[in-house]
Design goal:
Layout: E1 2-5, E2 13-16, E3 25-27, H1 33-46, H2 58-62, H3 70-73, H4 87-101, H5 105-121, H6 125-144, E4 157-163, E5 166-172
Antiparallel strand pairs: 1-2, 1-3, 4-5
């Protein structure tokens, strides 16, 4: 399975097994669909992105062609379909998601830490707590994840596991 970042206005992020050459970005392959679901859940907790397949563009939004769905009402989406979220703000979230999917979470962690401190300095402790929770979730994920680039083709992989006084090696060429 792969994670697709669709090439469209207000890009969607979803799991797929088919790579379509339409300009979309693909991250993976991942070892299991379970890992993909966990990663997508983390992304949705950190950044509420749209999951609908509406043809969002500035013209359709200005004409009020769409109404917000249940995902907006339960807080899983910020309502770009009705203009409640700007494309710039949405793309900022997509940039952070892209960094996470590439395994470059340090920049995202620094941004979350900075926003947490700024909120605390303004005495907006509820907002600071939200940033802290996002920071903790991403830090926890980063500690457990291994990212493999689809651009790497010719590598040797090995692991070593030490149990008590014994060591076990695994080599893959």
């Amino acid at each position: 399975p792969w994670i697709c970042l669709k090439n469209e206005p207000f890009p969607r992020v979803f799991s797929t097994r088919k790579i379509i050459k339409d300009g979309s970005k693909y991250f993976g392959p991942y070892t299991s669909q379970t890992m993909v679901r966990l990663l997508l859940e983390l992304i949705r907790q950190l950044y509420p992105l749209r999951t609908c397949s509406l043809k969002l563009n500035q013209s359709n939004i200005e004409k009020h062609k769409f109404k917000v769905c249940l995902e907006y009402h339960i807080g899983n989406c910020k309502g770009p379909c009705e203009g409640f979220q700007s494309e710039d703000e949405y793309n900022e979230s997509i940039a952070m998601v892209t960094s996470i999917l590439r395994g470059e979470s340090n920049d995202v962690l620094q941004l979350l830490r900075r926003k947490m401190r700024e909120s605390a300095d303004k005495l907006d402790f509820e907002e600071a707590q939200k940033f802290k929770e996002k920071y903790d979730k991403l830090e926890n994920y980063r500690d457990k994840s291994v990212i493999v680039s689809p651009n790497v083709h010719n590598v040797d992989v090995f692991t070593i596991l030490v149990v008590n006084n014994s060591a076990y090696a695994n080599f893959l060429r």
